[in-house]
Specification:
Elements lengths: L2 H21 L2 H17 L8 H24 L19 H11 L1 H7 L4 H12 L4 H8 L3 H16 L9 H17 L2 H6 L1 E10 L11 E2 L1 H15 L3 E8 L2 E8 L2 E10 L4 E7 L2 H10 L4
Parallel strand pairs: 1-6
Antiparallel strand pairs: 1-2, 3-4, 4-5, 5-6
């Protein structure tokens, strides 16, 4: 491997993280990284003073272009669009997991959808990846003053929409373990007791599998939905605890096939929101990682 390839490979994980947080899908993030590699391969080295800054700038601009196109496409998306969940390495340290969860949770990625492409890029580079404003300006092609304004407005826009509860990871895990047990036992009362009265379920089927066109609200209604699956499939439905986007979550199998990935927000006592990814395209990576489940 030559020096150029080694330099790129060393920065590949950072480029992927930026692209995934910008675009919300693993496949598109990988496409961006591949495009950056092709441009890096063809670029005249004598014109590049800082390799990392150059690669980050190219990746960021490619993501901005893709995000502009994606926002138009998502206006015609069937049902609700949710980010694609990403498996978290179970061998990561607790400190690393917490750090990752803060910056890549599905709830956080959903919030970022509210921002313009340039604001999203500026906010992520500055607040998540600790770039200074000179780097941010170079990456998105604006002045430092304009970038400061973008970040400030983005922070204000997101401030009131952050998750309501900060729950210890261990508490979140125990609650999900209890919920998974209730699902496996088909215990409606236990399922219902673990859901807040005003709990919300948001699903993404991508028009490829059935899902809800708008959020389902009400703990009892959601409990009835889960209970109906238990009744219909019996022993053919199973759930597994996994880590998605740095947080404990559930994946559900029906008749041996991955049916959904479910991320949960809790207040430490009950579940307040569930994000259910059912779009087969967005489950492909998780399915491949759990093919023996």
């Amino acid at each position: 491997m030559n020096n150029d390839a080694r330099a790129f490979d060393a920065l590949r994980p950072r480029l992927h993280k930026i692209a995934y947080r910008m675009l919300g899908t693993i496949a598109e993030a990988e496409d961006v990284v591949q495009d950056v590699w092709l441009r890096w391969h063809a670029a005249p080295r004598e014109l590049i003073e800082n390799v990392e800054a150059w690669l980050v700038a190219v990746a960021t601009r490619l993501c901005i272009d893709r995000l502009r196109a994606a926002k138009i496409q998502r206006e015609h998306y069937s049902g609700i669009w949710l980010p694609e969940p990403e498996m978290t390495d179970p061998s990561a340290t607790p400190e690393g997991i917490r750090e990752r969860a803060d910056e890549v949770s599905l709830a956080f990625l959903m919030l970022l959808e509210r921002l313009s492409p340039e604001a999203r890029a500026a906010f992520l580079l500055r607040e998540v990846f600790d770039a200074d404003y000179a780097e941010v300006a170079g990456a998105i092609g604006k002045t430092e003053a304009a970038c400061r304004q973008l970040v400030s407005r983005a922070k204000a826009q997101l401030r009131d929409e952050r998750p309501r509860y900060a729950v210890p990871r261990e508490t979140h895990l125990r609650l999900l373990q209890t919920f998974a047990q209730a699902l496996e036992q088909g215990d409606f009362a236990a399922i219902n007791a673990l859901l807040a009265e005003d709990a919300m379920l948001i699903g993404d089927g991508g028009g490829k599998v059935p899902s809800f066109p708008k959020p389902m609200v009400g703990g009892r209604r959601i409990a009835q939905l889960f209970y109906a699956a238990c009744r219909r499939y019996g022993s053919e439905v199973s759930v597994k605890l996994v880590m998605l986007n740095g947080q404990w979550a559930l994946i559900r199998f029906v008749e041996g096939k991955l049916e959904s990935a479910q991320s949960f927000e809790t207040d430490g006592v009950r579940i307040v929101r569930i994000l259910v990814q059912r779009n087969p395209d967005k489950l492909a990576c998780i399915a491949a990682s759990n093919s023996d489940a």
